Structure formats: structure tokens, C-alpha cells
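Please describe the entry underneath.
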Amino acid sequence: MCNPNNPTGYLYPTDTLLDWHAQLTVRGGWLVVDEAFMDTTPQHSLASHSGQTGLWILRSLGKFFGLAGLRVGFLLGEPQALAQLESLLGPWTITGPSQFIASQALADDRWQQQMRDYLPAQSAQLAQLLSQHELTPAGGTNLFQYVQHPASLAWQQALAKQGVWTRYFETPRALRFGLPPAHDWARLQQALEQATKALSG
């Protein structure tokens, strides 16, 4: 499970996921939950339940922290199972510099709280801007907005010509818009205006 879902942003209730885990455990199964987009809403994370047998939680520093280039992620799970996995992976899964930068990022609680206060407003601003161009989001998170539109492919191509890249989904036809850098809101606004003219003409 991807929670929050990518690209819809749907957030599965904790009780639902724990119930699914319980059903799978009885049958000898696992529940693997990818929480790559969870850092803006840590209160919904299953991290506090991660010691249970058959429950695996994946996290990443690539989204919230913006450190995709480090290729750093981590796994939460039952201690004995984690020890077995560690023995299989070996000692060189992450480079030294990546480990250092990751540890600095994870220890910076002040910055993390600032981002959790800042990003929801940015995401709401993106939703409002998109809605002004008849691209009303059908979902999303504090890091992206998800728009279903019958002309999604045409929109993607028109925006790409303006230097704005979105992620396209064919079924259902939809786009995922990531948050722009703080200095690029005007450029996004201009690109949407140009794309609107191109598609309406």
C-alpha cells in the first residue's frame, strides 16, 4: 500500500491498515506500507506500530526533505526480521556522505516543523491556481495536487512547451502537479495561461 496514495493523495485510516495487517498475519502474509509522502502528516504514520510481525513500513528522504539525489530510504519493521534483512544487505547500502547528510536532516526538528507549517499553505495555493484554469484537483497531499481531466495529455504537452513538467496518468486521465519552487509561482501562472490559450484556440 502507498499511504498517502500516489498520485491521488488518498490517506488510508490507520485502523483500516491495522485491520488488513491482522487479517494478513493470520494467513502468514505481510502488509508493506510505503509512506514516502507521509512526513508532512506524521500523525497518520504507522511507525509506532512497526514492531509487529509482518508489518513493514518504507520511508524516504526524497520527497519531504527534497534529498532524492542521496538515494536514502529506510525500513521499519519487527526487530528480528530487520536483523535478518540487514545481514543480507551488507554494510555498504548507503554512502558515507549520504549517511551524514541524512542524519543532519533527520535531526533538524525545527526545520521539519517549519515545513509542516509552510507546505499546506503552498499546496492550497497550488490547488487554487489550478482551479482558476478549470483544473480543479480531485485529490492531493501537502506536496502535490492530483487533477483528473479528459484532456490531460494535451495539458501535459502544452505545459511542457512552457517548461513545466507534470506527471501524466492514462487511466483515469489525470495529471499530478508538484509544488513549484518559491520563486517559480509567476512562471507557473504564465505557463497555465499560455496553455489555456493554446488549448482553447
User: Anything to note?
Assistant: The chain has two domains: 14-107, 110-200.
